[in-house]
Amino acid sequence: MQRYRIIGLLLLFAASLLCSKASAQARITRSEFICYDKREDALRDIRTGIDKHIALNPTLQYSSDEGTVRNVYEQVFEVPAAWNDYNAYMHTENIGEDYTIFINGKQITHAVDRLTPTDLFISPYLEQGENTVAIVTVDEPYMSRMDEALTQAERTKFTNCYIFAQRRLAIYDYSVRMLPDSLGRFAQLHLDIIADNSFSTDETINVGYDIYAPDGKLMEYSVNDLALTGHSRDTLRFRPYIYHSNPNRWSAENPKLYDVMLYVKRSGMLWEYIPLSVGFAEYGYNDCGEITLFGKPLKLNKKAYNAAADRATTEQEIRALKKSGINTLCPNYPQPKWFYDICDHVGIYVIDCAAISSTSTGDDRNIGGTPANAPELVDEYLQRVEAMYHRAHNHVCIIAFALGNEGSGNGYNMYKAYELLKAKGDSRAIIYAGADGEWNSDL
Question: Which residue of 48, 64, 66, 112 is surrounded by the most CB atoms within 10 Å?
Answer without folding.
Answer: 112
